[in-house]
Q: What sequence folds into this?
C-alpha cells in the first residue's frame, strides 16, 4: 500500500475489485476507471477524458480494447461513463448503496496499473462538503496523483463509496471523492455518443470569464435606491440561476438571466449606461452557440454591473455597498 494510516483495507474486497479496474490510456496520459455494469459501462472522471481523441482501455489481465463510445457525462460532478466495445472483458464492480464515510474515517483509493494488482492508498476524510442539493462530496486529507482520477474508493468494510478525483480549487490541489449515488442515474440511459462528445466539457473547462469593467459614468443619472434595487434583483437572479445551472438545467438558467436582463432594461430608462450594458450582454448571446455559453455571458454582464454598482455605492454611501457585494456570494468550486 502506497501511503496512509496503519489501517489495512479489506483483503477480500480488494481481490473482488481488482479484476474490474481498468487503466485508461488517453492521448499520452493515463487515468483510472472501473467496469460498473455487465453491458461494459466504464466509470471514470470526466476531466481525465475530456477532449480525448483516442482512448485505450487496459484490463487487469492485460487485455486491451479501444473505447469509442461515450454513454453519459455529468459535467458538474466530474463523471463520465464510457462503453467498452465488448461486454465481457471484465466483471462489473458492485455498487450497492453504502453510508457515506464521515469526517476522520479511513477510505482506500484504488488506482489502476499495468498489472493485475491496483495501487492502494489509504486516506482520512478531512471533511464532508455539502455544496447544495446538487452535490455532496468528501474532501481527503491529502492530494491524489492525477492518474488516480476515476478510480473507485472503498470504505473500511470494502464497499465502494465513490470515485476518486484529483481536483484543483483556488490554486490548491485537492483529493476528492464523488459519491457513488451520482453514478446510478448515468447508467440508466441506453444512448451512446462518439468520443467527439468529450470536446464540449474541455471547451467549458477552458472558459475565460469576460466580466466587463465599467467606469462609474455608466451609472450616470441613477439614484441610490434604484441601484440598490438593481443589485438586489441581480443577486436574486444569480442565487436562483446558479443552482439551476449546477443541477444541469442550463437552459433554464439562461432563460432566467435573459428575462431578468430584459426586465431591468425597461426599468433603467433614467440611466441609459446601465441599459446599454444589459443590452450588450443580450446582444453577445446572439452570437453564441448554446445556452451554456449564453448563461455565462449574462452572468458576466451581471457581475460587471454588480461590481460598478458596488464601487458607486461605496463612493456615495459606504454602508449601501454591502448590498451589492453580498447579493451573490461566490460559489464553492472544488472540481476541475
A:
Amino acid at each position: 500500500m502506497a501511503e496512509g494510516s496503519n489501517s489495512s483495507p479489506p483483503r477480500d474486497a480488494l481481490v473482488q475489485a481488482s479484476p474490474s479496474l481498468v487503466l485508461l490510456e488517453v492521448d499520452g496520459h493515463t487515468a483510472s476507471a472501473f467496469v460498473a455494469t455487465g453491458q461494459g459501462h466504464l466509470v471514470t472522471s470526466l476531466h481525465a477524458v475530456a477532449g480525448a481523441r483516442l482512448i485505450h482501455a487496459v484490463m487487469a489481465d492485460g487485455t486491451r480494447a479501444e473505447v469509442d463510445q461515450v454513454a453519459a457525462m455529468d459535467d458538474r460532478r466530474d463523471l463520465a461513463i464510457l462503453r467498452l466495445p465488448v461486454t465481457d472483458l471484465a466483471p462489473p464492480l458492485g455498487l450497492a448503496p453504502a453510508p457515506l464515510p464521515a469526517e476522520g474515517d479511513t477510505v482506500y483509493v484504488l488506482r489502476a496499473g499495468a498489472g493485475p494488482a491496483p495501487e492502494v492508498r489509504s486516506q482520512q476524510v478531512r471533511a464532508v462538503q455539502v455544496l447544495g442539493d446538487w452535490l455532496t462530496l468528501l474532501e481527503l486529507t491529502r492530494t491524489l496523483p492525477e492518474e488516480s482520477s476515476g478510480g473507485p474508493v472503498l470504505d473500511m468494510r470494502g464497499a465502494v463509496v465513490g470515485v476518486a478525483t484529483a481536483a484543483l480549487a483556488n490554486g490548491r490541489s485537492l483529493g476528492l471523492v464523488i459519491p457513488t449515488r451520482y453514478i446510478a442515474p448515468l447508467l440508466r440511459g441506453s444512448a451512446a455518443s462518439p468520443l467527439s462528445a468529450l470536446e464540449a466539457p474541455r471547451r467549458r473547462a477552458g472558459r475565460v470569464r469576460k466580466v466587463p469593467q465599467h467606469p462609474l459614468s455608466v451609472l450616470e443619472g441613477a439614484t441610490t435606491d434604484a441601484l440598490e434595487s438593481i443589485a438586489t434583483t441581480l443577486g436574486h437572479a444569480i442565487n436562483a440561476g446558479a443552482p439551476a445551472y449546477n443541477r444541469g438545467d442550463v437552459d433554464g438558467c439562461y432563460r432566467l438571466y435573459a428575462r431578468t436582463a430584459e426586465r431591468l432594461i425597461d426599468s433603467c430608462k433614467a440611466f441609459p449606461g446601465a441599459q446599454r450594458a444589459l443590452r450588450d450582454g443580450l446582444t453577445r448571446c446572439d452570437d453564441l452557440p448554446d445556452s451554456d455559453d449564453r448563461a455565462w455571458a449574462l452572468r458576466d454582464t451581471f457581475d460587471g454591473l454588480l461590481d460598478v454598482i458596488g464601487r458607486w455605492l461605496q463612493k456615495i454611501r459606504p454602508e449601501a455597498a454591502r448590498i451589492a457585494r453580498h447579493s451573490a456570494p461566490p460559489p464553492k468550486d472544488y472540481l476541475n
In short: The mean pLDDT is 86. The chain is about 35% helix and 25% strand. The longest strand covers residues 119-132.
